[in-house]
Amino acid sequence: MNSLIKYLIVILLSLAVGCQPDTPVDPDGTAQDPDIGTVEFDFPVPLRVAPASGIRRIDLSIAKTTYDLYRGDFLISANVSDKERVYSFKLVPGDYYFQAGITCTCMGDTCLWDGFPGGRLGTKWAMDRITIIKGEKLVKKIAFN
Prior knowledge:
With 145 residues, this protein is of the alpha+beta class. The protein has helices at residues 2-18, 66-71, 110-113, and strands at residues 37-42, 55-63, 76-77, 86-91, 94-104, 123-132, 137-141. Helices cover 19% and strands 34% of the residues.
């Protein structure tokens, strides 16, 4: 009988402790942690020779070093879309490197005239370094050459 009471007390304590979160829950992700910085990428589709309907966003990734970026060892990558232009990431303070990629799906030589390597389905890349500062928001506009 004594062991049954101990067993019930352990179960009740486990349930009571297990249901109390250590940190407040933020279901919308809107609360800003003061020890974290934010980077917001403005990822427009460049308008030149190829029409905007023929340009597709294919990548937006962040890595700690250029070597990690080259190897594809990313800290985080966005699920990019042709419908979304702005992407936001919360990161600990420090230096990071990002890459963004677009591809051209137009027919004929339009992609080649617009500078996409190899023409149709060729990819253009933009890469740069960003510095995240604690509690601040950095806005970075992506530009392709």
